[in-house]
Design brief:
mainly alpha, elongated
């Protein structure tokens, strides 16, 4: 089983299940109707949202923790998904805790 904390990539998952990456991607899309890349990105961004709301990790630390090499790429992806910056998401999350 893939260890907690492991960066989920199509290649890592394919190795874990002893399948080629291309076959795993075709199988996944056939079963779910969504590409594996889209699903993995959604999982990463949901994890980031959780970390923003529940930790004091910096945006850069969160970006690296979920597998982004550059925080700027993470910020752009987060803004596309949640229609707000990670910092604004964190502030909004903090205000709902009161």
């Amino acid at each position: 089983m893939v260890e907690t904390g492991t960066t989920f990539t199509i290649r890592n998952l394919a190795l874990e299940f002893h399948l080629s990456p291309s076959y795993l991607q075709r199988l996944f899309k056939h079963q779910t109707g969504v590409s594996m890349g889209e699903w993995l990105n959604e999982q990463r961004l949901q994890r980031a949202a959780h970390l923003l709301a529940s930790t004091y990790m910096s945006v850069k630390e969160i970006a690296h923790a979920i597998g982004y090499e550059h925080a700027s790429s993470f910020i752009r992806a987060f803004e596309r998904r949640f229609a707000q910056s990670p910092s604004h998401y964190r502030k909004q999350s903090d205000s709902t805790k009161c």
